[in-house]
Amino acid sequence: MNNKVKPAVIGGVVLGLLSAIPFVNFVNICCCAWAIVGGLLASYLYIKNSATPATAGDGAIVGGIAGAIGAVIYLIVGIPLGLVAGTAMREVMVNLLSSLDPRQAEMIRTQMEAQGQSISGAIVQGVIGALLLIVFAVVGGLIGIPLFEKRKAGPMPPPPPPGPGGAPFAA
Q1: DSSP for 137-166?
Q2: pTM (2 decimals)?
Q3: Rg, the chain, Cα only
C-alpha cells in the first residue's frame, strides 16, 4: 500500500491546489477536469514505479486516495479563497457583461450583491465540490490504467501442490 501513497499524495496536491485557486479552478467546470488530471497523474506515477502490471483496482485506489487528499486541500484552501475572491470574481463577470450590454450589467450587479455569499453556503458548496473531486479522481485513476499501463500481466502462478490428504499445502 505504501507504493500507492506517494503517487496519490502528488496527484492529490496537484488537483487540490488547482481546484482551489480562483480563476484557475474554472477548468473544473468541464467535468471536474483538475480532478481527472490528478487521478491520471497519480495512476501514471504509480504505474511508473510499480514492479508488476497495474490493474483497474489499483487505479481506482490511487485515484480515490488522490481525490481524498485533493478534497481536503480544496476544503482548507478553497473555501477561504473563494470567500475572499468572490467579490473580485463577481466584478469581473459584471465588467464582462457590461461590455456586452450595459443595461443588463447593472441589473445583474444588483442581483449578485443581493445574493452575496454566506459562510454556510460556501461550506455546503465546498463539501459538494469535495465529493465531486473524489469521484472524478477515481475516474481519472481508472482512465489512467489503460492509457499508461503497457505491460501485460503474466500467466497466473500455478496453484500450490497438494499436501497430505489431498488438501493444498499451505506455508
Answers
A1: HHHHHHHHHHHH--PPP-PPPPPPPB-GGG
A2: 0.75
A3: 23
Name residues whose C-beta falls within 8 Å of residue 108's C-beta, 6 or more positions apart in sequence. Answer: 93, 94, 97
Find the length of the chain.
Answer: 171
Q: Please provide the distance, in angstroms rounded to a whole number, between the alpha carbons at the two ends of the chain.
A: 23
Q: Is 160 left (phi over 0), alpha (psi -120 to 50) or beta?
A: beta
* Domain extents in the chain: 2-151
Contact predicate 71/20, CB 8 Å:
no
Please give the distance of CA 161 from its chain centroid, rounded to a whole number: 45
Q: How confident is the model over 124-145, as a mean pLDDT?
A: 95
Q: Is 23 left (phi over 0), alpha (psi -120 to 50) or beta?
A: left
Q: ∠ at Cα 101 (125, 85), nearest 5°?
A: 30
Lowest mean pLDDT among 31-40, 62-71, 126-135, 151-160: 151-160
> Is 21 within 8 Å of 43 (Cβ atoms)?
no
